[in-house]
Design goal:
The complex is a heterodimer.
Chain A lengths: L2 H9 L32 E3 L5 E5 L8 H13 L6 E5 L16 H28 L6 E4 L2 E4 L2 E7 H5 L31 H5 L15 E5 L7 E7 L1 H4 L5 E5 L2 E6 L2 H8 L3 E6 L9 H9 L3 E7 L2 H7 L2 E9 L11 E7 L2 E6 L4 H12 L6 E5 L13 H12 L5 E4 L2 H7 L6 E9 L6 E9 L15 E6 L17 H19 L3 H8 L3 H14 L12 E8 L2 E11 L6 E11 L6 H20 L5 E2 L2 E2 L17 E6 L18 H13 L5 E2 L3 H9 L5
Parallel strand pairs in A: 2-3, 7-17, 13-27, 15-16, 19-20, 23-26
Antiparallel strand pairs in A: 1-2, 4-5, 5-6, 7-10, 8-11, 9-10, 12-20, 13-18, 14-15, 14-17, 18-19, 21-22, 22-23, 24-25
Chain B lengths: L1 E8 L2 E8 L4 H8 L18 E4 L2 E4 L12 E3 L12 H9 L8 H14 L5 H8 L9 H18 L1
Parallel strand pairs in B: 1-5
Antiparallel strand pairs in B: 1-2, 3-4, 3-5
The chains are: A alpha+beta, B alpha+beta.
The structure holds FE2/S2 (inorganic) cluster (FES) (2 copies).
Chain lengths: 698, 158
Amino acid sequence: MRRRDFLQGVAAGALTFFFTTPLGSAPIQPTRPGAYPEDFNAYLKISADGRVGCFVGKVELGQGAMTVLAMLVAEELELDPAQVDMCLGDTDLCPWDMPTGGSLTMWHTAPVLRGAAAEARAVLLRMASKTLGAPVADLALKDGAIWVKAAPTRRTTFGELVKGRKMERHLGKVKPKPLSDCTLIGRRVPRKDALAKITGAAKYAGDLRLPGTLHACVLRPPAHGLTLATADTAAAERIPGVRIVRDGTLLAVLHPQPDTARTALALVKGTFEGTEPDVDDVRIYQYLVDKAAPGQRVMISRGDLAVGEKRAATVVEEEYRNAYESHATLEPHTSVAKWEEGRMTVWASTQSPFVLRDAVAEALKLGQDKVRIIAQFVGGGFGGKLVGPGAVEAVRIAHKVPGVPIQVAWNREEDLFLDTYRPAAVVKIRSGLDAGRGAITFWDSTVAGVSQGEAELAYDMQATRYQAPAVPGLHPLRVGAWRAPNAHTNAFARESQLDALAAKAGVDPVTLRRRLINDARLLRLLDLAVETFGWEPAPGPTGRGIGLACGAWRQGLVVALAQVAVDKTTGKVKTERFLEAVDVGLVVNPDGARQQVEGAITMCIGQALSEEIHFKGGRILDKNFDTYLLPRFSAIPRIEVVFADNAAMATQGIGEPPVVPVAAALANAVFDATGARVTHVPFTPERVLEALKRLPTK
Amino acid sequence: MDTTVSFVLNGKAVTVRSPRDRMLVWVLRDELGLTGTKVGCEAGLCGACTVLVDIEAVPSCSTTLGDVAGKTVLTIEGLALDGQLNPVQKAFQEHHAFQCGYCTSGMILAAWAFLKKKPRATRTEIVEAMEGNLCRCGAHVRILDAVESAGKAMGGVR
Ligand code: FES
Ligand code: FES
């Protein structure tokens, strides 16, 4: 059943819930922001036909939340995941939740949901025990039926037990099934969104087509730092059907046809005022370093750097950079908003329904109960849809045209212009290795542009100092979370630096890490990665083009191995093989987890090799995919994924960890292939050629 | 200037009153309500809007209504026949060859157009055929696997 069908079912009252309260637009679960409801009825509702509805404030971004959450409920209630109807991201119907990001779904929400399902199971069994006159221990359940094991004809169903009532009994915390009894966890399960997505039936925010919809195109300044001063809309208004809405510096052209609204917008002549930042994509790095310098703070400090420097036999000092990078979700930001009877409803491509609800309430000075966000299928998020400026534009416009659904769908140029980029950054590291090549004697790291988040890994270091700036408004462009924020920037620097130290000291990169790693789990993962890859490490550069990097996102650990071929005349890097060994604890949905790893590797091949926002002042020069270069099929290598067998550890998220070491592994592979170190992400052909030029001529 | 344009859409004759230079993607999505065709770049760069015109895969964002007058257009909605999934759709389902799904309609149609001509393609040929279609989620490896196995399934019945 598709999500829409399900919601229509809800609206039509086709489902009989535990509740006696009628279902309407009133919130079912009065949600206290910041807390998961304790009543399992908030998450699970059983209809008369025994189907289980599961309500969660997360969103399906493509990461498979819909499937894995259904698996957890199905596991506890002994159902097929297909028997669980998921309703995600509707702030009226779903209990409060955090944004869908930061790999939090499996870490935070999953245990809550599993606990709710476990309690529901226990309550259902007790109800059945009373109805069937048999002790709980004598009962069996499967596919929504409960029967007496010894007399299977004495049976009842979830639907019969619950019929139109709320399950009043509560048992408090009930332990989920032990892993040994689980039949779904760890198995491949068909994705619940498959049929909708392969037939084109899946509805994204732009696909709603509510009757009477007007498409709104917003007048954009040519550059960041500028806002609208005056506008001449006369020519646009001559197009039949055009309406103009203005709210402060927001001016939108409305038309029933999306393409006509866009054409009319082009006829609006605006003047803009303000000051553009005085920086560009070349000067940005010095800009960040200079601007950050006065605000640098020591975040972590251990041991004496000066003593460590004296003990060092090999010292490397290097500056690592990365450019601004766009999320570039294939679905640009899109929202539909409707202001009706004092309530604002927003159908949005968002990762954060509840945050967006509060932002909309704030923007319009409404109570939170006057706003409803309904997340649709979202065409990719990656951190780019954690905030919803497009949705806020839609509600501001809709507020001025009551009763009319307003669709704001950014085009690619707007999406690249208005995105919250992965921050450009500079990481400077000076560090040393002892003569025995087994100890880092000092490690001094200063960043500008990001934090020191996940800068450390489980490596022994005798003296360390990590500095990061506390400078608000450091960036001239809007920045935000981009899959594994901070962590991938810092891992690129750290793992490149270790590789450089190893090469300079003539030790192979695996042996050096084995000597430094002080965590048994990471050590095992390193062995797993190297063995699976089948690599005989040797001090680099070996000419084979193989690079290694490790990374972490909270408790999730990853070891990456990349193999590349570098064309020394063009500077083009071709990734030939990429392997990741991943330890994220218990893997609930192995195929879904594997998809996340494959996707992260693929995405970060673009991050490492081609994706960069070019800008001059406040002008974003990349308008489309002709200059903003996402990886295409020919860039994709053979990808291998192996998971550590670590069912004893609680499930960690999988969205971010596999992102972390990708660029570093590729940079180390380029070094292994050529002897040239690339230190600037993305390492485009030009940057690789520059690095090759710096090589001493033999 | 509105004109009347007729073509065959998913097996049925349709007549549309719209300017001849209106882009097909808007005619499909806005006029005819077929929203399975997606919009990602409006410049022929991403393939999200791919449809089949006669037997060629084309970006409907860069194809005008006039271009398809008298021709046959196939969109994702017309691919499953009598409720039976097309072999490429089946393969995408089996391989989970998508994540967010926003590129999927375009991917499936590009692959179908290619495989109809060449079901026994090599991996390299498949890569070339799919090069114009972007996937941000990184489902590429699975998409290639799916196209390869769909090709086998189609080649098998010939
Ligand atoms: S929308 Fe047509 S190719 Fe991108
Ligand atoms: S599945 Fe998201 S763009 Fe391909």
